[in-house]
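TASK: fixed-backbone design
INPUT:
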């Protein structure tokens, strides 16, 4: 079995010179020839540099790893039964699939009701999220589910206004919230505002609750696609400089005269905006949750990525101590925006192992009668059979399945493949 694909991928627009003679451990052609045009990742990196770190073309694609994990959801088969029924009377005239009730609820009273047991995971400041937001927000609202506004929306909004380093107006965030509210019916679902390090410094969640009527907020520890902060590419010098002034890490340095000259003469065409990595501490985490509730948050959630088992245990324990309404656990391998290609393939705990560990940790909490947050599983879920298997894998704790790439495919403005 091939576990990784090295050195050549459609995601990075690269290929090997010899298709049938490739070293399995390095990914290089077994005979690397002087004078090759260099279309593999190594060759293209020599003259395109950091551009080759990320899947291409940025802004119009979603991505997922090519790594072939030893076990995934496809290795499990769903078994039915010929007698009896769960959740409904064992009567042939009543145990019919249209009669199945898929509604659920998360959070403390009154809770957020869902018509369907899934949530659209955080869609942040990348072009792919921005361009598809109208369809995603309307789709979530119509189907009675929730959608999370991801990180860096206000910080990336060039029309946003700030006072003393805090956001006081963001047309982009206002529009995203309004698009969901316009389609929301009968109180089902909710729009959730996520925050990373920069969002917290800019006061994004405070602004969303006080000025925009938001009731649900999410703290972010990471995602399954990468072990670093959010990233996007910037193609305008002035925008790169403004983002740097707002406190973001922008590479190469858009204030450096040498870099400015190189950009203006066309030596490179894109800057990278990076977000910082949060440093998790128990006391500061619990303090932040209390602050958010004191400011009006009715529901507080946490999203964590595919870190080592100790960090998963930390997320579960902190979510219990803070009595969070939802904990989303995102497995390795996917991403809707911009993630380093090698990292997306080679870091993190894959879904079966991560979610199995999660269930064990939740069992321990349950055995000690400690508070159990609602649970959402994320990491490559696309079809209904996978959703069913996710529920079975982490029963009875899982409330929702979180997904992003599948819904985004349905929301393409011009249709898939156009």
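OUTPUT:
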């Amino acid at each position: 079995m091939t576990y990784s694909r090295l050195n050549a991928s459609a995601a990075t627009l690269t290929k090997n010179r010899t298709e049938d003679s490739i070293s399995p451990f390095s990914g290089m052609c077994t005979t690397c020839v002087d004078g090759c045009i260099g279309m593999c990742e190594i060759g293209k990196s020599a003259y395109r540099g950091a551009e080759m770190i990320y899947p291409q073309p940025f802004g119009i694609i979603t991505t997922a790893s090519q790594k072939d994990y030893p076990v995934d959801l496809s290795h499990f088969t769903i078994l039915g039964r010929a007698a009896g029924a769960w959740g409904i009377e064992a009567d042939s005239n009543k145990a019919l699939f249209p009669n199945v009730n898929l509604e659920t609820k998360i959070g403390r009273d009154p809770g957020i009701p869902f018509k369907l047991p899934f949530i659209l995971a955080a869609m942040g400041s990348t072009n792919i999220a921005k361009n598809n937001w109208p369809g995603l927000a309307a789709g979530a609202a119509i189907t009675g589910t929730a959608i999370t506004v991801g990180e860096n929306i206000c910080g990336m909004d060039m029309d946003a206004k700030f006072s003393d380093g805090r956001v006081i107006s963001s047309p982009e965030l206002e529009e995203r919230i309004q698009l969901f509210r316009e389609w929301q019916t009968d109180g089902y679902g909710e729009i959730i505002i996520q925050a990373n390090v920069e969002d917290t410094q800019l006061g994004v969640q405070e602004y969303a609750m006080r000025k925009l009527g938001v009731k649900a907020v999410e703290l972010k520890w990471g995602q399954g696609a990468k072990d670093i902060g959010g990233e996007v590419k910037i193609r305008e010098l002035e925008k790169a400089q403004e983002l740097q002034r707002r406190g973001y890490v922008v590479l190469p340095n858009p204030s450096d005269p040498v870099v400015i000259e190189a950009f203006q003469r066309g030596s490179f065409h894109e800057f990278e905006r990076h977000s910082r990595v949060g440093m998790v501490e128990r006391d500061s985490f619990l303090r932040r949750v209390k602050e958010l509730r004191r400011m009006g948050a009715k529901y507080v959630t946490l999203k964590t990525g595919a870190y080592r088992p100790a960090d998963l245990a930390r997320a579960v324990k902190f979510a219990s101590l803070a009595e969070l309404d939802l904990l989303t656990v995102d497995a390795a391998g996917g991403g809707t925006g911009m993630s380093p290609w090698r990292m997306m393939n080679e870091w993190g705990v894959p879904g079966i192992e991560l979610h199995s560990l999660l269930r064990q940790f939740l069992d321990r909490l349950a055995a000690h009668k400690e508070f159990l947050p609602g649970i959402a599983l994320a990491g490559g879920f696309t079809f209904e059979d996978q959703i069913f298997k996710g529920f079975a894998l982490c029963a009875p704790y899982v409330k929702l399945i979180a997904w992003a790439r599948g819904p985004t495919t349905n929301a393409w403005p011009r249709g898939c493949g156009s």
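COMMENT: The first strand starts at residue 63 and ends at 64.
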